Amino acid sequence: MAEFSNPNQKGGSQDNGSLFILMAVMVVIFFGLQYYKAKHNPQTESPAKQAASSPTQTPAPLPTATAQLGSQIGSLGGQTVTIPAVQGTAESTTTVENELYKITFSNRGAQATEWILKRFKDVDGQPLNLIHAEAAKTVGYPLSLYTYDAGLTASLAQALYVPSATGALTAPANLTFKYAAGGYEVTKTFSFDESYVLHADTLVTKDGAPIRSLLAWPGGFGDQADAMAYAGSQLDTSTYGKEEHVAPKKISGGNTLTGPFDWAGVSDLYFASIFLPDHAETSTVATLETQFSVPKVAPPSRNAVDTRPALIRWFARVFGHSNTTTLDPVKDYVKVPLIGAALGDASGHTKTRIFAGPKAVDVLKNIHAADPKVTLEPLLDFGFFGIIGKYLFLALRAINEHVSKNWGWDIVWLTILINLIILPLRIKTMQSGLKMQRIQPQMDAIKAKYKNLKMTDPKRNDMNAEIMELQKREGVNMFGGCVPTLIQMPLLFAMFGMLPKVVEMRQAHWYWLPDLSAADPYHILPIVMILSQFLVQFYTPSPGVDPQQQKMMAFMMPAFSGYMTWNYSSGLALYWSVGNLISIATQQIMNQTSIGREMREIAAKRARRKGGNGPQTIQGKPGKR
Questions:
Q1: Are residues 344 and 428 in the same domain?
Q2: Do residue 363 and residue 404 come from a single domain?
Q3: Whole-model pTM over 0.85
Q4: Under 8 Å CB-to-CB from 293, ≥6 apart: which residues?
Q5: What domain range includes position 546?
Q6: HEC states along 505-553?
Q7: Residue 81 falls inside a structural domain
Q8: How do residues 482-511 score in pLDDT, each as one tens digit?
């Protein structure tokens, strides 16, 4: 739980400065994360510099699938060679299945037309097809071949290959597709095991000589339902163990990046298609990008039945989240970059493994590149506070495995645990605040001695020196009240970077929340967040702070927290809201202790003095109110 107010503020300009320092740090970190993300996603290298070294083929169009079978004549090194034609006569499919996926291949293009992940669901509650079905009709299907000639690429995607098997295969298995016509020979062999990884061996030759062809995942994933999901996509590469993540707006279609690559591919928030070449040193990557029209917000499930409670349905009507919402093809759609990647070997003969599955920590850390020291774990990028986010997630997962089995309750339990750990710091903070209040009259007297000095007068340094000496003599730490906040702020921003990116949170339910990785569709938690943040400001003592500044902070911080959670991960809003409620309860209890009562009495006495009632003497120890 993020606590922004300092319960031990000092009086005068230093007190006011502390408030603004904390606020400024919060804002700087928030917007600094955006800058870090842009900085961390560098522009891909332009292919113009590599045009000379990238062999571009301009062959004659391949014969169509209905071309007459026979022998094709080519020439190689001045000698005549005979290349037997190999073509399919009709379209057929082959499915390969294990416990994790079911992939359907078509012999047209020898490419995957369906890639079902059995352990994940789409928005309609059906097994998730990892292939973006609509996009594939435009940009092509996964495991198609990309060449530097658009005509050849299109011909290879439409040709009818001859498969080594049709029907259903169960992993471990091998599947080979062959095609030969017009002097071209194409061989694509895929090997499958029990994991999310398969191996591909592809070769395209012209008159017996290899030509540059790359294995492609042309663009998009089946879980991308709205513009926000596409914004989370990126090009991911690793070179000598150093990873890079490139945002869609920084990718130009057709760029060629030269290796070495430990791994390279594309991903969205939760899923990825990554190539792990057998020969990293000679691998190259072509970046693919197409403008695609998508809904601004995810359309409602076609199969959903509205079984929500009446109160939730009322919130849905008020805030525009009806299950019967229809999308206007003009107003409700926006153009976004759809990114893809193709990997090949400079020799023309491509051998690579392909990971296509969830960006889950346990899965990624067990997938190694050709260099066994390099894994896919860095593919899951939690941002600037990623190391903290990683351990927070591991803590959440441990709670899920041993305590509640529900990710929403896991967040609640983790929030309680964090607040219990920092409780001693809260108590120390309150004790420090009491000491500060006790010496406040002496601090005011020191400031009064120098009140007529200008801010630029060097003698003001003497004032600060006297105040610091007083605090040191009385055992007061001027930054004592900031410690809990400084501890909790990194936790908050780590949650901010982690919760929307872990696949375990995707479609994780908690009461009215259908997906903890997405925003609260009814904005209930953000409203609770705003109200609870206001109460945190109200109940947390801030002695010596100017009343006008107290009022300003009382409204600014709730507004800021509401803005952060309104359209963001509901898991973050849950963490923050529960933390606020715990903070309110804790502060209420602490306010009833002897320290709390004394702090309130000192604050009231100071307020009466400022109100012109003159100094009053308290007889005896103040009692409980």
A1: no
A2: no
A3: no
A4: 333, 334, 335, 336
A5: 12-38+390-442+479-608
A6: HCCCCECCECCCCCCCCCCHHHHHHHHHHHHHHHHCCCCCCCHHHHHHH
A7: no
A8: 667 778 889 999 999 999 999 999 999 999
